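Researcher: Sequence of Phosphoribosyl-ATP pyrophosphatase follows. Predict its structure.
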Amino acid sequence: MNVFKRMAKQEIEFLYDLERVLIDRKKDLPKGSYSTRLFKKGIDKIAQKLGEEAIETIIASKNKKDSEVIYESADLIYHLMVLLVERNIPLDSVFQELIVRSKK
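Model: Prediction complete. Tokens:
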């Protein structure tokens, strides 16, 4: 079964919408935007934040509350998306890799 057949179209579209917003933020650098601050600080800061969120997700997974895992996972996905946009790697490239792996 294709891994994406289980995801609702709405969720996948949201990820593409987020990607477009982040691309715009990187280009326009609007004041007051957290994404702008990350893009201005560059890849080292973005990678650091991604690592921090990964650790926080791991710690949350050891706790009893699913809500903590969900919250930290959302932060992790957001920061991963920022990193991908910073590196000019389209979300489609990640999806294609997942599809290839799902066929093994």
